[in-house]
Amino acid sequence: MSATWISLLFCSLAVLAKDSLAFGPPAPSQLIWKHRTYNMVESIPTLSPDGNTLYVGSDDFHIYALNTTTGGTVWRYKTNSMVTASPTLSPDGNTVYVGSWDSNMYALNTTTGDLNWNYTTGMHYFRSSPVLSPTKNILYVGSDKFYALTTTGELVWQFTARSYITSSPALSSDGNTVYVGSHDKYIYALNTDTGDLIWKYGTAGSVFSSPTLSPDG
User: Fold this and answer.
1) % of the chain with per-residue pLDDT over 90
2) Using H for helix, E for strand and C for coil, what is the string for the chain?
3) Closest by alpha carbon to 68, among 114, 115, 16?
4) pTM for this structure?
5) Exposed, middle or buried by CB within 10 Å (0-12, 13-18, 19+), for 147?
6) Which tens digit of pLDDT belongs to each residue from 88-118?
7) Which residue positions in the chain have pLDDT lower than 70?
8) Which of 145, 72, 63, 51 is nearest to 97 (CA)?
């Protein structure tokens, strides 16, 4: 059985092949390719639906699209600060969404890397990875506030917690509730259409991690 491992290294992205046997110890890993960036890679890569392109951000201020076979650059887009959030793809695979520490959420054409739009928030700290509702065509993401944006970059609503939000949100199975944590020590459940608070739960510290839903929702 064969699998491909993606390893994030300092200033580089490495892809390793791992061949394992049904019985017995696995064979050693073999480097397929690596792509050097010019600062740390903290962003978790996102794979295109056809498996041919890998999208990832870097602390060198760039968003990269890389060929999964060769590791070559398909395109790269320069922002004005670090990109530590992980990219999100539209259902049709034509748009990649990702935030930068320059206060902007970017929507880029996945084929060309051209900018479709950007939305500026009130804080430079953009670590939350966006989640997209495929039924409502709304993008949900945290920054200084929690934002709901259309897929054309227009504000639908915003929710103000008592501190900033670096947690990546999770959507309910019916798409009616979005869950997210904040540095104000609360986990929030919000109505996806209006941004109204459904409930909140206090914890003992800042919530950096992202919510995960049980299979039954």
Assistant:
1) 59
2) CEEEEEEEECCEEEEEEEECCCCCCCCCCEEEEEEECCCCCCCCCEECCCCCEEEEECCCCEEEEEECCCCCEEEEEECCCCCCCCCEECCCCCEEEEECCCCEEEEEECCCCCEEEEEECCCCCCCCCCEEECCCCEEEEECCCEEEEECCCCEEEEECCCCCCCCCCEECCCCCEEEEECCCCEEEEEECCCCCEEEEEECCCCCCCCCCCCCCC
3) 16
4) 0.85
5) buried
6) 999 999 999 999 999 999 999 999 999 999 9
7) 1-29, 124-125
8) 63
Token pair of 13 as six digits: 């992205």
Please give the structure tokens belonging to residue 18.
Answer: 């791992």
Structural tokens at position 111: 């084929």
Pairwise CA distance, residues 72 & 76, whole Å: 11
Give residue 192's pLDDT.
Answer: 97
Query: So what's the pLDDT on residue 21?
Result: 35
